[in-house]
Design brief:
It is built from 8 helices and 20 strands. The chain is α/β, with parallel strands linked by helices and 490 residues long. The strands form 2 sheets. It has an 18-stranded parallel beta sheet, sandwiched between helices. The chain has a two-stranded parallel sheet with strand order 12-14. The radius of gyration is 27 Å and the shape is globular.
């Protein structure tokens, strides 16, 4: 692997070979027709991330083959019908390839435990011959009764998928062994086919809602990676209202991505009790959202809390499992939280990012600060209405205490209205990293707001740093850890 192979021998004699790994040989474009003729015992074949466009017939004579990896072979668009001859195959990985459709012969692979496939969706009149083929022929999925893992990635613009998706969902529901499932549901109502008491998915990645695939995403790669890290992820795109089917899936999810929702005004409209297991939450481009959490949503008529009526304290907690929260491009967002903060709510939150929220004025209240004992990283960018990340008056008796005890990293960029970090409140006794850019009104935060004892790096504009006022002169050690910021860091 990784040795830049471009040519393979014609027919190597490897009579006892059980595994062959050739991944990441991007220059390898052709496999000789008789290359696999003398490999009768081959069980594992990895050709992932190579430049091959087709597979030789000799491969389909590998009667002992159990695992075939063709993931990220971007030039591979078709399989031979002879793939059905690989009757012992247990793993077929075509994720990231450009396969146009599954062949009906796949149904012969009754020993398959794992099937991963990415479909390349053709659009336009010039491709009608391709669109006429069913992306997944009828009966293929339900024939693979041993499947434990099924991952299907499609182009949301592919009209063939809309035509077949309901039948495919019905077939998937008959897979009794299925534990891992990745799928695109263009319509919310398709979720109703799933009876959670009859299937036990330990891992799922569901994308729900019709959308056009973007050429350039507003979601950074590191955020995409964070979403991928969690076992059960729900992405709800271009939604309207709060469908019961979404709330039902949300109860089982550990990651939630709410993207371009048209009508919802608060994340808590989806029900805080439905988000007890959520560890990662990303919310973006939801133009009507005015706040993230309103604890009034947990209260019934006459202000009697439905949560408080529960016998256990755990029922009171809001987002008690959440570790990662990323909010971006929310033009109507005004505050992160409204109402009382139940004890231990958000107490596991480690990372908070707020980007491009022009009307946001309130990030932290004192009640929130009391709960955020696990917060390690705070990023706020392009939120010009924020004057301080702490927007409440703190009683004098609390000003000697340190809040946000585990906060290690603060990044504040393009904050035109920012006057202070914490309104004079002491925060972040373990702070290690500070970054500022284009915060023209910010006074010196190192005098009485953040601790500098453990600071390892301060990044900012040289002109801003030189203009800061100090009561007893700037300590020399701070100059040693200051680094002029690069605009590409912002």
């Amino acid at each position: 692997m990784d040795n830049e192979l471009s040519v393979l021998p014609e027919n190597p004699r490897c009579l006892n070979l059980s595994a062959l790994f050739l991944p990441r040989n991007y220059k390898l474009r052709v496999i000789p027709p008789s290359f696999f003729d003398y490999m009768p015992t081959l069980q594992i074949l990895n050709l992932s991330r190579t430049g091959i466009k087709s597979l030789p017939d000799s491969l389909f004579q590998l009667v002992s083959l159990e695992r075939l990896f063709l993931n990220d072979c971007h030039r591979l668009m078709m399989l031979s019908p002879k793939v059905g001859d690989l009757e012992k195959l247990e793993v077929l990985d075509l994720e990231g390839a450009k396969i146009m459709n599954l062949l009906k012969e796949i149904k012969k692979l009754t020993n398959l435990i794992c099937l991963e496939v990415s479909f390349y969706g053709y659009t336009g009149n010039g491709r009608r011959s391709m669109q006429s083929n069913a992306v997944v022929p009828c009966g293929v999925i339900c024939s693979l009764s041993q499947l434990e893992e099924l991952n299907i990635d499609v182009n949301p613009d592919d009209e063939r998928w809309d035509t077949r998706v309901e039948d495919i969902v019905n077939e998937v529901c008959n897979l009794k062994r299925l534990e891992t499932f990745k799928f695109y549901f263009p319509r919310v109502e398709l979720l109703r086919h799933f009876q959670w008491n009859s299937i036990s998915l330990s891992h799922f990645r569901f994308t729900v809602g019709h959308h056009v695939k973007r050429i350039i995403s507003r979601v950074p790669l590191d955020v995409e990676f964070e979403l991928e890290r969690w076992q059960r992820c729900l992405k709800y795109i271009n939604g309207v209202g709060v469908p019961r089917d979404i709330k039902n899936i949300l109860q089982h999810a550990t990651a939630f991505f709410l993207d371009r929702h048209a009508t919802v005004k608060k994340l808590s409209d989806f029900g805080t009790r439905n988000m007890k297991q959520i560890k990662c939450c990303v919310v973006g481009e939801c133009n009507e959202v005015q706040m993230i959490i309103d604890t009034a949503d947990a209260y019934g008529e006459d202000g009697i809390s439905e949560i408080v009526s529960e016998s256990h304290d755990a029922e009171r907690i809001v987002l008690g499992s959440l570790e990662y929260l990323y909010i971006y491009y929310m033009k109507s967002l005004r505050s992160t939280w409204e109402g009382p903060v139940p004890q231990n709510s958000l107490n596991l939150l480690k990372s908070l990012t707020l980007r491009t929220c022009p009307q946001l004025t309130t990030i932290f209240t004192q009640e929130l600060l009391d709960n955020l004992c696990s917060l390690e990283e705070l990023k706020v960018e392009d939120c010009p209405s924020i004057k301080s990340i702490v927007s409440c008056k703190i009683p004098a008796e609390h000003r000697t205490s340190y809040f946000l005890p585990n906060l290690k990293k603060i990044s504040l960029h393009y904050m035109l209205g920012l006057v202070s970090i914490s309104s004079g409140l002491h925060i972040a006794p373990k702070l290690e990293w500070l970054s500022f850019y284009n915060c023209p009104s910010l006074s010196n935060p190192l005098i009485n707001e953040v601790s500098s004892h453990d600071l390892k790096k301060i990044k900012g504009e040289r002109s801003w740093w030189e203009a800061l006022e100090w009561s007893n002169g700037r300590p020399d050690y701070l100059d040693e850890i200051f680094v002029p910021i690069d605009i590409w860091d912002c």
